[in-house]
Amino acid sequence: MMAEKDENEEKVNVILKEKKLRGSGGYVIAKISDGEQKLGNLGGPELFLAGIGKIDKNRILKYYCNKCEKEYKDSPKLDYNNPNEDVGEGVILIEKGEYKCQICSGIIAQYRKFDSDNVIKKEANNTKIELKKEKQNVESVEKLKNSVLTKNSYLPINSLIGMPVYNDEAMLVGNIFEIGLKKSELGIININFKIKKSDDENLEITEIIWEKISKIGDIVLVKTEQGKSDSNKCPSCNFENENNANYCEECGNKLK
């Protein structure tokens, strides 16, 4: 009884602050805790709904839909499921969801939650000790973020396969489906990530080098560099070159 009372008192003492949370198709204004604010901070001053995940609709005050170009004093519709899908190296996708506009059904934001317990235990114990999987709450993604970004920590790079990739304007680039080394015509070797928006083989594949990744958490955040645009993307290999480049650094073809 005493422990239950302390837990209830702790919940009452949680301070919620009104914050703007960005998504790929708009934003929401919601009351969040300090812990949720840390999850939403994926880099820079902006907070992202993708980092937090599911929020009680009673705490969402209003939202803005880019498609409607209109703000609504309501909560967007939330569709989510629990696939429990192994996305590689023992990382389990335990939940994924989409916030949608109630009027046009446009996507305001997407999120994914991963259970990284198996990965951490495998790397900590290189033996035949039986791995015991524990269920983690929605804040387990903070544990994954810290394990990836902490100095001297280790996480298999293949565990990034299947993760959604966003740019720093909160726009969805796609999902990582392949990682490898690539040597350019100039002899430079880079770690390259192949990204596409669905499993359709006919869709365009985007390649991003390791240096463009600014942060890794439950999503991968890539930098939108100043001075670059679609005009300097190579039509042959989709490599993004410098603004003043005349030839593709990756394949050597002349840029238009």
What does this structure look like?
The chain has helices spanning 2-12, 34-40, 49-52, 117-124, 140-149, and strands at 17-23, 26-32, 47-48, 60-65, 70-72, 77-81, 85-86, 92-100, 107-115, 164-167, 172-183, 189-196, 206-209, 213-216, 220-222. With 256 residues, it is of the alpha+beta class. It has a six-stranded mixed β-sheet. The model is unreliable at 1-11, 118-150 and 226-230 (pLDDT under 50).
Write the SSE topology.
Blueprint: H1 2-12, E1 17-23, E2 26-32, H2 34-40, E3 47-48, H3 49-52, E4 60-65, E5 70-72, E6 77-81, E7 85-86, E8 92-100, E9 107-115, H4 117-124, H5 140-149, E10 164-167, E11 172-183, E12 189-196, E13 206-209, E14 213-216, E15 220-222
Parallel strand pairs: 1-3, 10-15
Antiparallel strand pairs: 1-2, 2-4, 4-5, 6-8, 7-8, 8-9, 10-11, 11-12, 12-13, 14-15
Number of helices: 5
Summarize the helix and strand pattern as letters.
Answer: HEEHEHEEEEEEHHEEEEEE
Instruction: Please give the order of strands in the largest beta sheet.
Output: 13-12-11-10-15-14
**What's the pLDDT, averaged over the residues?**
73
Briefly note the structural class of the backbone.
Answer: alpha+beta
Number of folding domains? Answer: 1
Strands, total number:
15
Beta-strand percent range: 25-35%
Q: What is the distance, rounded to the nearest whole angstrom, between the alpha carbons of the first and last residues?
A: 72 Å
Overall helicity: 10-25%
Biggest sheet character: 6 strands, mixed
Radius of gyration: 20 Å
